[in-house]
Design brief:
Chain B: It comes from Bradyrhizobium cytisi. The complex is a heterotrimer. A two-stranded antiparallel sheet of chain A has the order 1-2. The longest helix of chain A has 35 residues. Chain A has one domain. Chain A is mainly α. Chain B is mostly helical. Chain B folds into 2 domains: 75 residues; 79 residues, no CATH class. In chain B, 72% of the residues lie in helices and 6% in strands. In chain B, strand 2 and strand 3 form a beta hairpin. The longest helix of chain B is centred in the middle third of the chain and has 39 residues. Chain C folds into 2 domains: 192 residues, D-Maltodextrin-Binding Protein, domain 2; 115 residues, Periplasmic binding protein-like II (D-Maltodextrin-Binding Protein, domain 2). The longest helix of chain C is centred in the C-terminal third of the chain and has 22 residues. Helix content of chain C is 41%, strand content 20%. The interface between A and B is large, with 65 and 70 residues.
Amino acid sequence: MDNLSELFHGFTIAVTVPHLALMVVGVLLGILVGVLPGLGAPNGVSLLLPLTFGMQPVSAIILLSSMYWGALFGGSVTSILFNIPGEPSSVATTFDGYPMARDGRPTTALATAFGSAAFGALIGVILITFLASWVAQVALAFGPPEYFAVYFLAFASFVGMGGAAPIKTVVALAIGFAIAAIGIDTVSGSVRLTMGIDELVKGVNFVVAVMGLFGIGELLVAVEEEFHARAVSSRIDWREVFRAVGRLPRHGVALLRSAAIGCWMGITPGGPTAASFMSYGIARRFSRRGRYFGTGEVEGIISPETADHAAGTSALLPMLSLGIPGSATAAVMMGGLMIWGLNPGPMLFVDQKDFVWGLIASMYVGNIVAVALVLLTVPVFAALMRIPFVIIAPLIVIICVVGAYSVSNSYLDVVMMLGFGIVGYLFKKLFYPLAPLVLAIVIGDKAEDAFRQSMLMSKGSLGIFFANKLVTCLVVAGIALLLLPLVLQLARPFRKTASPDADTPAQEKVII
Amino acid sequence: MISRRALELATAILTGGFGVAVVVQSLDNGIGWSSAGVDSGTFPFLTGVIIVAGSLYNLARGVVPGARLASVPIAITSIELRRLAGLFVPAAIFVAAIPLLGMYLASAIYVFAVLAIPRHQSVLRSAIAAAATALALYVVFERMFQVSLPHGAFAAAFGF
Amino acid sequence: MRGTSLFLLSVSAAVLAGNAPACAAWQPQKPIEFVATAGPGGGTDNIARAVQNIITKYKLTDQPIVVVNKAGGSGAEGYVYGKASAGDPYKVIFGTSNAWQQPLVSKVAFNYTDLTPIAAMAQDEFLLWVKQDSPYKTAGDYLKAAASGDFKMGGAQSKDTDEVLTRMIEKAGHVKLTYIPFKSGAETAVQLAGGHLDSHVNNPSESIGQWRGGTQRPLCVFSPKRLPQGAKVTATEGWSDVPTCVEQGLDIKQYEQPRTVWLPGKVTPDQAAYYVDLMKKVQATPEWKDYIEKSSQIDTFLTGAEFDKFIKEDLEHLRQVASEQGWLVK
């Protein structure tokens, strides 16, 4: 095991007092930007970047990547407590995390999320350590048709689920696709669907849509029901943190499955967002308690969080070995690498062994530091739930407004965010599902680009999606996932004829 | 109060209107699928058509007296409507005031107003909360992360 | 009006070049915003941050500088923002040639005339790249094979610099290429490494890693003369070893992309002159040289009438290509 000795060498670089101190600083700063919606890891990383130019590259990347871990963890906090996902990849965490927190168990929800996130990240790092070169080869096999197939698979695993009125699901999905298409189209360079508003040429940012749909929308639903969080036990309960983490191994299957999905989507171009949605969708379909998903199920938190972090971690690998950033933050780090005079790419592993293995070792240590710090903060964050609604409501409004504004310093975004808030409320009230809408906004345009790039390559023939084994497998898997619920539904009347109607109200409630 | 049916109809009209706008706009971009690739308007056009068709279906279901829908005849009672307005109207005024007052002043006034006017908190505590909010925003965004929030037309007039 | 401002601009630039700091009549009184028309990590973002760092390090202004990314719509978001901020001398927009190219080929709501040109500060070169193990050794081999085969050329964005160059290659080399647009040069480079494309025309910095790593190599550079001598990229070759395309029989003498700096429209000549001077000072620092070398760009400084002439020529050329391709917006 050549890699193993390299790794030990890496540990000797990463585990030094100054580097551990940098990790703590990075993680804390990361948690802060992660918790504040509108500021994300890319903000923090790009602001720290200038400070790092005087440092050794390995110290600098340790600081930046620790910040990245902190931000990944922090992003889940607002998703769970206030239903405001700060990053696209933590949307799926809101589905069960928020109901659980609302149900009076914020500590459990947060601890579960952090525990499973750490597990996912760990699996991601292990993958990077041992399979770096293999993984790089896998990523290279992905051309436009394969990209499309991966996105298709993500949609298929998530959208095919029953629950909501099918036509409403279709409308929500189509609206998401249309929103994703707004702005300049990569493939043709032309401006689409700006509705006469010049500024819309930039497109509709995901954060703007989600702050409105989830944050403001949920706030409106809550105020209408005169919601008060069920009394959270008033003392800070440290034991519950450890109990929640201790219960994780019981969900071993979900953890492993989600980590596998996450790693796969992180290496392939799917990315953390697609990974978390897909993992949630698959868990909901295969879990024995799948029908309770959306009401605060533990596995509904574990699945997206594990996959998100596994993907986020393994997404750093394409950056290092190929020079393509797997996420916006990775892109900033890559810019940093170049300014430090390092060229990301295959030669980095040969030319800059200390750097690469120092970074990989710091991922292990950084994650442990991050999860320890973040678990310590759980009771503090959970205590936020005790603030009376009348005070927290205007604060959430301000957070959403500032968050929407700071995405690209645009007032229009703030107005749109408020508009999305009304839409979010109406949709929630009338059982239009929000999840497919959001998924389509996030990966709709990427899927469309990949599809049209494929059509350019194949001169308009769909045959390209069955041109080799890889893409055929992906497409067939997607179609199977899409058809599975239909088949099951068709089969159901033969097995059990009783009371489909009695189900509906209960089902309607479960819809996200 | 607002009936479930009215709400369904309104939403269907809203989504349908968006769908029509999408269809009309995408026609400008050109729709087609040939050996030269897929035109940029094609997919938006298709999604627009789906939105319109789906909205018409939802609209029809709303109009036709369906048994299922009637199970919850009233979607929003007048009390609920008042609560909704109580949250949304101040928020909308807050957003509308940002270009004039700037983020800091607008958010401070907003916090003060929603706490003090319905007498949730005393005037003093509301004022403290308002000042704290604006200060926290300033420190975190303007100072720490160098994200410049709008200062507003008033501040600009005084040269900030 | 425009003539006067250009005149003043070049006069003040000339005076400032003679090292007379007293003549900077206008000084910024509040924080300055650098608007990068690219996402974090992109070339335009890097230059904005490099300039920011240099200014901060040498305290070239007392005011803090904040970099804001407005990358939406291939950078159009940033330019539209600049247009909307007319008269505001605290917004400096960093872009490329797409400031004047984009309005020509797509219905964006700005034109470069809505902005005040400050300078073009660095030129990015373009090269023709193929996969490492492809059989073509020269641009001639490549063109010969492309004439009979169905070649896929990748590039960043549509109807932008990469595609314009692709169409020029088609014309000069009498071949037909299928152009496939991706989001960025980095993405394109990976697609080539994976064998999904036959070639691309990336800038040096976008593909240096892949060249060094042995997944792709440059055939020729679209420049009148070979690139300056620098450190070796691979064991045996450096940028200066790459032949020009003209040498290899692909008759495109020069094609490059300037990094441009703008102010919003309707600022005073004083204000524009201040930033011209500021950028000049930035360019004189060793850190700038370092940035230029690390990003494998060519150091230039065009301002005033020179810059204007450059834009006009480039625009004329683009208009020709665009009208042949039917890209011009009606």
